[in-house]
Amino acid sequence: MIRFSGRALAAAALAVLLAGCGGGTGGGGDAGTAPGRAAATAPPSHAASKSVPPLERSEPARLSIPAIGVDTPVMRLGLAADNTVEVPPVEDDDRAGWYRHSPTPGQVGPSVLLGHVTVGSHGDGVFRHLTRLHRGDRIETRLENGTAAEFTVTSVRTVSKDEFPTDDVYGDVAGPELRLITCGGPRVGEEYRDNVIVFAELSATKGT
Q1: DSSP string spanning 48-85?
Q2: Domains of the chain with CATH codes
Q3: pLDDT of residue 124
């Protein structure tokens, strides 16, 4: 079963997250659909952090990734009219977006955030350096209720968009986890061939 905030949403389960990377200067990029099959690479660990209790639901307001210099507001994203996942708008003030049909950061389950690697004529996107992250790097999400959920990177994967690992990204997990997604790999025209996916697990909470 694919779970989003404790509910199975059939339309969302079919909308594989392929974050558009803003090759053009208008619109939000290309959030496409793809078969629901996992990539052939080894899946990340889903061992829950038993020492850190989950947080109550509160939407993310800000995302910080010190290792790659990210400190960005977080906007709310849903589904587009064609049942693909929305992406942040292509604009100079590039931001990350939280997919609202996934758990909020710190809740049990995979919380999904996405961002661009490039934003057309505006230049570099907020997630341009995701591939530089390593196991053990810290990610912090600050929530609207004043608490913060800190995650530790467990793996970084680059996968073909044709083999997007739907189950690994959206599937049930035992504890609070985070997914950060952007485009990557070779660029052909305005499009990128691959997706970069960062997997992380809750390691600390603040302000609770």
Answers
A1: --TTSPPPPP--EEEEEEGGGTEEEEEEEE-B-TTSPB
A2: 10-25+57-206 (2.40.260.10)
A3: 83
